[in-house]
Amino acid sequence: MRRCYQIKEHMPSPMSNEKLSLFQPSIWAGSKSVPSTSHSRNFRTQLQQSIFTSLCVAYALLGLQRPVQAQENSGNFSGPGPYEVSVSSVDEQGLIFIPSKPSSATSTKLPAVVFAHGLCGPAEKYSDSLTRIASWGFVVLANQKQEDCGVMNVNHPFSTLGNLFQLPVKFGDGVDFEQMSRTVEQNISYLATRSDVDADKLALMGHSMGGGIVLDVASRLAANQPGKVRAIISIAPWNGVKPTPSSVVNAVKAPILIFCSMTDALCPCSGEVSLTDTQGVLSGSITPAIPFLFGPDSSSSWHGGVLSIFNNAQNATLIEVRDVSHFTIMGVGDGEQMQEFADWAHGVSGLNFNRPNRQYSQIPTLNYSIAFLKATLAVDVQAGESVMNQAPYDQRFSAVKVSN
């Protein structure tokens, strides 16, 4: 059974004491218990009646403002955490973000997160986001392999010509899905050996291609090393990696948090790719080029997209974020660094990554991601639950869907 909270339509009344419980300990523990169908129908009916009655009274008689919602800068995990963060490089592993323990810290070991970047996306371009996660007490390791696909933009002819004969090799390396999966597994094994990491509190996180790869890795580890990975966060996942995440995600028992946006032109929650290219005579939609670039079995809707991944998952939460692009969905604050990343990607590829008109300033993806990690890795379950349970009320989300 899947619960779906459409934020605009299903906002609880500010005049009632009703509260939607989005996350429960039984979900994180892998419990198979689910609410009954009749209970769900009664809940929806009561909720709709409550909304209609209360809002009519509130707006017509009392002149109340819009229903209570999460404020952009309120609540836990919405800004930098209490830890100072140092960044360094580890041979054959990647960039590592290490939080310095406050004097009040009681544990000598910290939970850790392996981060997988997007297609040809340098890990350092995610530094603001990864630093933010580390500042809340997580060691974060981001691999630096498969970062260079070369310049493929006719607006930069000399750079493109200089890479002409290397482009097939570089691009082929960039889309080597098995290589990235092996790298992520190596990152997990490395973190488990560190003296400052709690090997029982390891999570995977990825964006775009990396968002798909971490689901593939989690499904493989579920069979080979069950319990190794305790949580997975997949942001704007590409359901075009192989194996297709939607075809293997059902094997994952650990809790999964997925973020997507219908304004993402490359990996929308559902529907076809709407990204365009500006390459002279090749200007236009990139859809016809998808089979050429990624194989004849590739789909312009990425085999059902993000929604297909969620629908096939056992223990997942899907959050649809309003008015963000494929890049800014991963951003902190107003997403400035990730917008710069998008501009850089346009410069090297000619792809026209869109800029949705966002009506709010603070992008919420990472503070909810941190809350999810706090809860699922048993770092601070109460605080994590408290923030996650705000999701159905947050106007920056268009929908929150829960499986299990």
Your description of this structure?
Helix 6 (177-193) crosses helix 7 (209-224) and helix 12 runs antiparallel to helix 13 (381-388). The longest helix has 26 residues, at 37-62. It contains 13 helices and 13 strands. The model is unreliable at 8-20 and 25-74 (pLDDT under 50). It has helices at residues 25-28, 37-62, 127-134, 157-162, 167-174, 177-193, 209-224, 245-248, 290-294, 305-312, 336-349, 365-376, 381-388, and strands at residues 3-6, 84-90, 94-100, 110-116, 139-142, 197-207, 231-235, 256-260, 276-277, 284-285, 316-321, 351-352, 397-402. The relative contact order is 0.15. It has a 10-stranded mixed beta sheet, sandwiched between helices. The radius of gyration is 21 Å and the shape is globular. The protein is α/β, with parallel strands linked by helices and 404 residues long. Helices cover 34% and strands 17% of the residues. It has a single domain, classed as Rossmann fold (3-Layer(aba) Sandwich), CATH 3.40.50.1820.
Please provide a brief summary of the model.
The chain is α/β, with parallel strands linked by helices. Helix content is 34%, strand content 17%. The chain starts with a strand and ends with a strand.
Low-confidence stretches: 8-20, 25-74
CATH C-level name: Alpha Beta
Question: How many structural domains are formed by the residues?
Answer: 1
* Largest sheet, strands/sense/barrel: 10 strands, mixed
Strand/helix succession: EHHEEEHEHHHEHEHEEEHHEHEHHE
Shape: globular
Rg over CA atoms: 21 Å
CATH topology: Rossmann fold
β-strand amount: 15-25%
What separation lies between the terminal Cα atoms? 6 Å
- Figure out the total of helices: 13
CATH evolutionary superfamily: Alpha/Beta hydrolase fold, catalytic domain
